[in-house]
Amino acid sequence: MGTLLHFKDIYTDAFDDLKPGAIKIILKGYSVFCAIMLSMAFYAFMYRVFTGFDF
């Protein structure tokens, strides 16, 4: 659990000194988009593993 809190602190500290508000919103949106894409890729991989897809 401490590792997740550490990553959260790194994430929030990265956006503290960023001045233009629009860039901050775009970068935060992009990071959420990347997290969604990674979770979908992980889901697709696990689905293929459990349904017996031949790699």
Structural features, described:
It contains two helices and no strands. About 80% of the residues lie in helices and about 0% in strands. It has one domain. The chain is an all-alpha fold.
Task: Name its key features.
elongated, transmembrane, 55 residues, mainly alpha, DUF6747, transmembrane helix, membrane, 2 helices
Rg is: 16 Å
* Number of DSSP strand runs: 0
What does the main sheet amount to? none
Distance between the termini: 34 Å
InterPro entries: DUF6747 (IPR046635)
Keywords: Membrane, Transmembrane, Transmembrane helix
Q: Quick gist of this model?
A:
This protein is mostly helical and 55 residues long. It has helices at 2-14, 21-50.
List the helices and strands and how they pair.
Layout: H1 2-14, H2 21-50
